[in-house]
Design a protein that fits this description.
about 950 residues, Jelly Rolls, about 10% helix
């Protein structure tokens, strides 16, 4: 995230060498008092030599560097020998939150000038920058920004303690109901706070803040009284209203307040206007004549989808949605009668699900809103294939090897980010009948079980949980909605073998291509005295009806998933469905295609593992007839300006999501189609375009909404937000927070629940850093730039390793302290898991418990997550990250590493650790001015014990169809 210029990089890289020889390229620190428009700078010096500091003064048209003469009447401050303390940031060991960091700047108090400087320095914003002699101001690197928390002054020195400016306002977002805001709220509501809503919220609770008001007179009234006193200070009278005093009606009042008389408290209604006043005695009844029953939803929502009273749908005619003022705009529902428990389904202020496309799902039954390009054929239909959503889908046919277009344009705003999503699939010819088992059975296939004790294979719907041993496994489909699973008939059966085959009409001498998608597992675990080996082997053969293996003899397919657990290594050869393709020449008019599944086991657990097949295809190699499609995003003049890419080849509905920043007032989405061999169509459905801020359920957009709405004038590092947004496209945040808490803690909880760091950079802008595996290496360290005798390896505390993980989500009340507050849970333990790839999460948990010798449970109450998919994404990341004890490497290096930030990836090689480089992420960063070094602590990711770096396939990728072309 740090930006450095070429000049800075050159000077930083030469600093150590040149400064030791001549001192000419040594670092200079600048201390900027941003609010006072002053800068103080230190002289360049050679490390190890005498330290002298230069003078500073007022910044005018440029910076005043060391040695510049300042007019005597301005007075002088002089950086002291202590200069600037270590500047540091670090991540807490048990959470992805960043500690508040501090720095100290020391000045000599020359001519007592600081006596007049102290007062404006308190709470002043200060920035510390690093550069080198000869660099211009623009090339100096911002390392730290903060505010002066304390100052200490003597006649000799001025010392400023600086607290980092992270989320400077530290605003408490839990705003009480019943005091300054909604003073007439019922007593039961006054212990609550204004809810903060994010994303799409279903069944969010509301809070009654006004209703029928009844009180009794505390003092008698004469006909001339224009105020009255009520015994009940908690009576729910609003700020103004119309009341009835016993039989006197039509009385209005202009304000209310609580007053104290004779050690008693009363509610006083002021400014009474009485048409026909009469006298009243103590304890007579006062009632609100025209009562409004107001129910607070929370901070202003963008749209309201549905309202329920005690779970029963309420017609819109029976309530009014209003916007009122509290500390900012809030949304309330107004009823004319008392309600029970009122809940709402609403879109928060950061969520607007408006689709900017016209007829994106083709539900008009035609191509309204779209333009068909020259040479293309666009037909809206209902079947073959069935639509991905709704009643209709589009079939787009281009030309032979020549793309033809179909597009729509919409108005955009330059600088705004937009998200485009749609579903697509391709048409081809498959010579196999029911090659994807989409009939829900084995129609077209023949089963032959060579071993009598085994049972035949079974077809399952994709996503159905299947119990195998003590594991509950959820298999996705490679294609369509069904798959076939081979497995032993009994839980403890040590072996099985099954075949299914199909006879296909072929032409002698022609070449064909067979494609097979499969999942198989080869599992080996070495124990002290025994080896547990369980296998599920997939294979195939091709031949004639009389000799099924005459063209391609039985061939075992490589495992789709291989896990080898041993004392010092692990092996991962793939995951999910493997695609195998093989070409052959037909020798008969009928060719038999056979797939084989074999399960064996030995050692500790006599249980053979299952094998899965799906998406079997047979095509003629000389005519690989299929449709192909492409995507363009751009302007009418340059259709591919933002995105121009092929969409691959997929034979099942596949969701495509891309984002871009508009640069023009009109944007065009273009789908393109062509075919090879016979004419084939590409199919499209469910096209949606949303402005990113309006899309709103991506965690990064939620974080941006909180900052932009509640923490102004805090600024964001937009580049980091754009990058993080694309990494979390599969995540959804939404919820009603009835006790948001302090702003910094709120943002850190948000970050932790999507594996993201949130902190301020050296320019005082908020940075987000997703801790995923796609981060690029920012710097490499070895013996050449690790300073001798500073390298240490310290393992993380054992308390950072867990063997049981529970993600509680879908909050009922917005609380975050116990599982009773949440409706849903997903978990992983050594014996079971609710995750779609539960087998492997459970193995990781079991390994952690075995290796580290104790069960250790982690519960996360995810108040921002309300869907199972996102909860599983969080579970997957927590299991992979926290089932191993990582090593933390501590060392010092030269000043050119100063641009590194928390969460950055680095590569470290050191003989004291491992003989090969390891990837690591920065968890602590400090610039030490005394030595002109950078002190780093990095968490080693590659030397995570056992299986920590094992990557699981995202459940979003399930059923993606072909991912590579045929190997003809």
């Amino acid at each position: 995230m740090q930006t450095t210029t070429a000049a800075w990089n050159t000077a930083a890289g030469l600093t150590e060498t040149l400064s030791r020889l001549s001192g000419h390229t040594a670092p200079i620190f600048l201390v900027d008092f941003l609010s006072l428009n002053r800068t103080f700078g230190s002289r360049a010096y050679a490390p190890g030599g005498p330290r002298t500091f230069g003078d500073g003064g007022i910044v005018g048209s440029g910076l005043l560097f060391a040695g510049v003469i300042v007019p005597a009447e301005l007075g002088l401050l002089r950086l002291s020998d202590q200069g600037i303390s270590s500047l540091s940031m670090e991540v807490q060991e048990t959470a992805n939150s960043v500690r508040v960091s501090t720095a100290r700047v020391s000045f000599q108090n020359q001519e007592a000038f600081a006596l007049g400087f102290v007062s404006p320095s308190l709470k002043a914003r200060i920035r510390i920058r690093l550069g080198f002699l000869g660099l211009g101001p623009a090339d100096f690197l911002s390392l730290f920004t903060g505010v002066v928390d304390r100052d200490t002054i003597t006649r000799q020195a001025l010392m400023l303690d600086i607290l980092d400016g992270a989320f400077r306002l530290h605003r408490n977002l839990s705003i009480a109901i019943g005091g300054q805001y909604f003073p007439g709220a019922p007593v039961s509501s006054r212990s609550k706070f204004i809810p903060l809503l994010v994303g799409a919220i279903r069944d969010a609770p509301t809070i009654q803040v006004q209703g029928a008001a009844v009180g009794t007179l505390a003092f008698a009234m004469s006909t001339g009284h224009t105020v009255l006193y009520l015994n009940s200070v908690g009576a729910t009278f609003p700020n103004t209203g119309t009341i009835t005093i016993n039989a006197e009606t039509g009385v209005t009042y202009s304000s209310r307040e609580i007053i104290h008389r004779s050690e008693q408290s009363y509610l006083r209604l002021n400014g009474l206007v009485r048409g026909a006043p009469v006298t009243h005695a103590v304890d007579e009844t006062v009632t609100l004549t025209t009562a409004k029953y107001l129910y607070l939803i929370g901070y202003q929502v963008r749209s309201l989808q549905q309202v329920r009273n005690n779970g029963v749908y309420v017609q819109p005619a029976n309530y009014t949605l209003q916007t009122l003022d509290a500390d900012r705009k809030v949304s309330v529902l107004e009823f004319t009668t008392q309600q029970g428990t009122v809940t709402v389904y609403a879109n928060s202020g950061n969520l607007d699900e408006t689709n900017l496309l016209t007829n994106g799902g083709f539900e008009t039954g035609d191509t309204t809103g779209w333009v068909t390009g020259v040479g293309a054929t666009a037909v809206v239909g209902t079947v073959t294939p069935d639509p991905e959503d709704g009643t209709y889908r589009l079939a787009l046919t281009g030309a032979l090897a020549d793309y033809k277009d179909f597009y729509q344009e919409w108005i955009t705003r330059a600088g705004d980010r937009y998200v485009v999503s749609f579903s697509f699939l391709h048409e081809d010819s498959n010579l196999l009948t029911n090659g994807g088992f989409e009939t829900g059975g084995l129609d077209g296939w023949t089963v032959t079980p060579p071993i009598p004790t085994s049972r035949g294979p079974a077809v399952y719907p994709a996503g159905q949980r299947i119990v195998i041993g003590n594991q509950t496994i959820l298999y996705p489909a490679a294609d369509g909605n069904y798959l076939v699973i081979f497995q032993a008939p009994l839980e403890n059966q040590a072996a099985y073998e099954n075949e299914i085959y199909q006879d296909v009409a072929t032409t002698v001498g022609l070449t064909y291509v067979l494609g097979i998608r499969h999942i198989s597992i080869d599992y080996v675990q070495f124990a002290i005295n025994a080896t547990d080996s369980r296998q599920g082997f997939a294979g195939f053969k091709v031949g004639t009806t009389g000799d099924p293996g005459s063209i391609i003899s039985y061939t075992r397919l490589p495992p789709a998933i291989t896990i080898l657990i041993a004392s010092d290594t692990n092996d991962r050869r793939g995951n999910g469905y493997a695609l195998h393709s093989r070409s052959f020449v037909a020798t008969s008019t009928t060719t038999r295609i056979t797939v084989v599944a074999t399960g064996t086991s030995q050692g500790l657990v006599p249980a053979a593992l299952p094998v899965v097949f799906d998406a079997l295809r047979l095509q003629q190699a000389s005519v690989l007839d299929t449709s192909e499609s492409a995507l363009q995003l751009g302007t009418p003049a340059t259709p591919g300006l933002y995105r121009n890419e092929d969409l691959g080849t997929h034979y099942v509905w596949t969701r495509k999501v891309v984002s871009f920043v508009a640069t023009a007032a009109l944007t065009r989405l273009t789908w393109r189609s062509r075919f090879t061999g016979p004419s084939r169509a590409s199919f499209f459905d469910r096209a949606v375009v949303q402005r990113v801020f309006s899309a709103g359920d991506n965690p990064i957009e939620v974080i941006a909404y909180i900052i932009d709405t509640f923490l102004q004038p805090l600024q964001r590092n937009q580049a980091s937000f754009d990058l993080a947004y694309t990494k979390l496209l599969g995540w959804r945040y939404g919820g009603s927070l009835t006790d948001p808490g302090e702003s910094r803690a709120l943002l850190q909880r948000m970050g932790e629940q999507c594996n993201t760091l949130i902190y301020e950079d050296g320019n005082g802008k908020v940075v987000v850093q997703v801790l995923d595996a796609t981060r690029l290496v920012q710097r490499e360290f070895s013996l050449s730039n690790i300073i001798a005798d500073t390298f240490m390896v310290i393992p993380e505390p054992l308390d950072t390793v867990y063997s049981e993980f529970y993600i509680w989500f879908a909050p009922r009340t917005g609380a975050r302290s116990s599982s009773e507050d949440f409706q849903g849970v997903t978990f992983a333990t050594p014996t079971e898991s609710t995750h779609p790839v539960s087998l492997f999460l459970s193995i990781l948990c079991e390994t952690a418990e075995t290796i580290y010798g104790r069960p250790h449970r982690l519960d996360i109450f995810a108040e921002f997550i309300s869907d199972f998919t996102t909860a599983n994404l969080l579970l997957e990341q927590k299991v992979q990250r926290n089932t191993s004890r990582h090593d933390v490497l501590h060392f010092e290096t030269w000043i050119d590493a100063a641009p590194l930030q928390l969460g950055d990836m680095v590569l470290v090689e050191h003989a004291a650790f491992l003989s090969h480089p390891v990837f690591a992420e920065v968890v602590s960063w400090a610039v030490v001015p005394d030595t002109m070094r950078v002190r780093l602590s990095v968490r080693a990711l590659q030397k995570a014990a056992w299986l920590a770096e094992f990557e699981l396939p995202s459940p979003l990728d399930g059923g993606s169809g072909w991912s590579t072309e045929f190997d003809a």
